[in-house]
Amino acid sequence: MIRLVIADDHPVVRAGLVGLLSDEPGFEVVGEAADGEQAVRVAAATSPDVVLMDLRMPGVDGVEATSRIAAEGTAKVLILTTYESDDQILAAIEAGASGYLLKAAPQDEILAGIRSVAEGQTALSPQVAVRLVERMRQPATAPTQVLSAREVDVLRLVARGRSNKQVAADLGIGESTVKTHLLRTFEKLGVADRTRAVTLAMEKGLLD
After folding, report:
1. Sign of torsion over alpha carbons 113, 132, 86, 163
2. Most buried in the list 53, 55, 97, 153, measured by CB within 10 Å?
3. Which CATH number is associated with domain 149-203?
4. Each residue of 119-149: pLDDT tens digit?
5. Is 102 exposed, middle or buried (CB count within 10 Å of its CB: 0-12, 13-18, 19+)?
6. Residue 67 burial (C-beta neighbours within 10 Å; 0-12, 13-18, 19+)
7. Is the overall model pTM greater than 0.90, yes or no?
8. Domain boundaries, given as residue ranges, for the chain
9. CA 53 to chain centre
10. How much of the chain exceeds pLDDT 90, in percent?
11. Alpha carbon of 51 to those of 2, 71, 79, 83, 108: distances in Å?
């Protein structure tokens, strides 16, 4: 029996998944979550085999929730979303997701993906697999703009798991200033979130 937690902020989508998986032999839905923070709490409380995780949710998003659940090591995370941009795919995989499927995928593909992830394998939709291969074939390029010393300081602390409030206290600056530095960093690196900013900066040798 594969124990599942379903995290999606759309009640209709979540209910549909619960109904589908509850009726499928070999699956048991042990929890639901409407946002990333709740997904982390429910996963900790129920110890599922797999968490089906949407990406865009209020508050803590799917990437951050995936990172926190993966760090605990109590469950595998399978992204199930409508979004498939390169940065979103890479951010999710780098956060620790074991698979990335699209909600538009056939039912059999979703069920097979859950089984694969539960068994410790990887599950990627064909579209996502192609995007990842294409991305890996692209030659590495330097960011179009160099980060300022302060932006590097902020990103280095973010890489250590510090929140915006903690970064502000560490550097003696306002929390709004931290947010401004991060937004400028995202723009310079061409990314959309903290996780991808840190990983890309490390890849480019911008962080120690």
Report:
1. positive
2. 53
3. 1.10.10.10
4. 989 898 887 777 776 766 665 554 445 788 8
5. middle
6. buried
7. no
8. 2-137, 149-203
9. 8
10. 44
11. 10, 14, 8, 17, 18
